Amino acid sequence: xxxxxxxxxxxxxxxxxxxxxxxxxxxxxxxxxxxxxxxxxxxxxxxxxxxxxxxxxxxxxxxxxxxxxxxxxxxxxxxxxxxxxxxxxxxxxxxxxxxxxxxxxxxxxxxxxxxxxxxxxxxxxxxxxxxxxxxxxxxxxxxxxxxxxxxxxxxxxxxxxxxxxxxxxxxxxxxxxxxxxxxxxxxxxxxxxxxxxxxxxxxxxxxxxxxxxxxxxxxxxxxxxxxxxxxxxxxxxxxxxxxxxxxxxxxxxxxxxxxxxxxxxxxxxxxxxxxxxxxxxxxxxxxxxxxxxxxxxxxxxxxxxxxxxxxxxxxxxxxxxxxxxxxxxxxxxxxxxxxxxxxxxxxxxxxxxxxxxxxxxxxxxxxxxxxxxxxxxxxxxxxxxxxxxxxxxxxxxxxxxxxxxxxxxxxxxxxxxxxxxxxxxxxxxxxxxxxxxxxxxxxxxxxxxxxxxxxxxxxxxxxxxxxxxxxxxxxxxxxxxxxxxxxxxxxxxxxxxxxxxxxxxxxxxxxxxxxxxxxxxxxx
Length: 524
Known about the structure:
Its cofactor is heme. GO terms for molecular function: heme binding; iron ion binding; monooxygenase activity; oxidoreductase activity, acting on paired donors, with incorporation or reduction of molecular oxygen. This protein has 524 residues and is an alpha+beta fold. The protein has a 5-stranded mixed sheet with strand order 1-2-8-5-3. The protein has a 3-stranded antiparallel sheet with strand order 4-10-9. It has a two-stranded antiparallel ribbon with strand order 6-7. The protein has a single domain, classed as CATH 1.10.630.10. The N and C termini lie far apart (111 Å). It has helices spanning 7-29, 31-38, 59-72, 93-100, 110-119, 128-138, 144-147, 151-165, 178-194, 204-220, 230-239, 242-249, 251-271, 275-281, 289-299, 305-336, 338-352, 361-366, 368-380, 412-415, 435-440, 459-476, 515-518, and strands at 78-82, 85-90, 107-108, 175-176, 387-390, 395-396, 401-402, 407-410, 477-480, 504-509. β6 (395-396) and β7 (401-402) form a beta hairpin. The protein has 23 helices and 10 strands.
């Protein structure tokens, strides 16, 4: 009655039936997962694309949407879909604490699988088993006692920064702080962690530009679910030029590792010891990050050359970019808020006076208000906007069960802007981190360094280095800017939080007197 189907029609009908059959099979196979996922509050989801459209706007719009969802659903977990991946956004500090400390939520999510193309299986991206082993080896290099040995390097690099910034002194033309700061943090991380001096032959600028370009390209793939299958991502990697960029960026880390390995082995030969004996002899002596890695590689057959490379490039990437981002934001915020800048300088003056001496561990311990300022900077502009955890089992949080297989997203910038945690959250207020105010809040109200077992291993290093750099700059200059806080806009696709248009400031020679000594006091 309907006639014989043509070949194209037969192909279409067969394809539709096949797709529907696969869809029903998938839903039946994952019915338990879908049942739990369906109980979570969240915006509408559409076939195939899920709620991807929610994440295709500007950064401001996306963050505004996440904040709106958090408020709309009373800060409960919110379920969304990006293609076949189910994401659960967790905002409440109580729920965040449960997730970050649960042994069934230690695997990283989809974003980190893309970053493995750049960082390999370093601490940031490693599977749980590998992470446990690497962290045990690497934690030695972040012991506070050994961090104190690095102060001469911090002081040296920061004085070079001040010398370079002095070229702009008293100029009314704003300059972008970023290039100065990222160059300094990169030099510092290479020398403190790797005992390696960067110079002109290393083409540092090319490496840093490649690092940013590759990381941004990888982060953008998160909103492209059609690239999630490894085959399609491999094709994309080849056709987009990403593969060639990855080869180029490995040149500097491999050169560094090879030079340090030659140096390390020559020391073993000179000591007339076996690698294991040499390691035991140095057990209680100062060792850099690279020393620790090379020792592990010599003594443990399961810790390979690839492991060394992965950890070195992870350190070069995360250790320089994150610090530089926060330092730039912090100095810009102090330029906008001159009253707070005066308070910070007064504290610095009260600790070190008007001398140019090198800073010490005792000095940084006394920079209490400066630490509040840095933490408030990280509250407003955390270096990582979102991080994810993949659930290998169901997890019960306060009011819901999060299903196995879901990717839990935790957004510091959303939690940090909850008005019930931080009154007037859009304002820059270092008093949010006074002892009294911190005591009133849940510990996981502040997650700039993540938390739990997989929290940032370099947190103490980061705080020390940021205190030292910012205080050194403010000892020499006052910083100023023509922009207001309301002008600050954030880039959407960067791997780290970055400001649109850079960090425009001017610097003036510092009047070394504290602000209270500069005020006009009327004669009696």
